[in-house]
Design brief:
This protein is an all-alpha fold and 161 residues long. It has a single domain (7-158), classed as Four Helix Bundle (Hemerythrin (Met), subunit A) (Up-down Bundle), CATH 1.20.120. It is 62% helix and 2% strand. The protein has helices at residues 16-19, 25-44, 48-74, 83-86, 92-98, 102-111, 113-122, 136-147, 153-158, and strands at 7-8, 22-23. Strands 1-2 form a two-stranded antiparallel ribbon. Helix 2 (25-44) runs antiparallel to helix 3 (48-74) and helix 3 (48-74) packs parallel to helix 8. It is globular, with a radius of gyration of 16 Å. The two termini are 14 Å apart.
């Protein structure tokens, strides 16, 4: 399996040893699953801001796994020298584009209006929400939009990772 592109965790709050940790597709998928379960636990504990943030972060990790799948399938990094640079983002819409999922998402939404409505909810998440006091309604709405088994964004993304 091609391991040319991996995502690296960086940040001033990460420990020095952890700061440059690279994640492959499988690890991003596991992280996505773990963060959505963390969000579920925080909802159950009435911790709305953390639940909101981690639900969106789970989706971000899933989309980054899709980006790596696209790189492996296409070899895009040999065609676009700036491709990897564009992947250094938390923006969900940019990650959908970098994973080459715009057209497939359009087809999915055309076939399932509720999936489209759920994408509209999910797209408003950003990493800066960790600094916001999300409400119960906001947290539950995002979590449901992401996790709904029939029309959720995360189950749809998992079909492409």
């Amino acid at each position: 399996m091609l391991r040319i592109l991996e995502f690296t965790i960086q940040g001033s709050y990460a420990s020095k040893a952890y700061r440059s940790r690279k994640l492959n597709r499988t690890e991003l998928q596991q992280l996505s699953d773990e963060r959505i379960e963390d969000a579920r636990a925080l909802l159950a504990a009435s911790q709305w801001p953390g639940a909101y943030y981690l639900a969106g972060y789970a989706l971000e990790c899933a989309l980054k796994s899709c980006v790596l799948a696209y790189v492996e399938r296409s070899g895009i990094i040999f065609e676009d020298k700036k491709f990897a640079e564009k992947c250094w983002t938390h923006d969900l819409e940019t990650l959908v584009k970098q994973a080459d999922l715009i057209a497939q998402r359009g087809l999915g939404i055309a076939a399932n209006a509720q999936l489209g409505a759920n994408w509209l909810i999910a797209k408003d998440w950003s990493e800066t929400t960790r600094y916001r006091m999300s409400t119960q309604q906001q947290a539950e709405k995002l979590f449901d939009a992401i996790t709904d088994s029939a029309d959720g964004v995360l189950p749809w993304v998992k079909n492409h990772w």
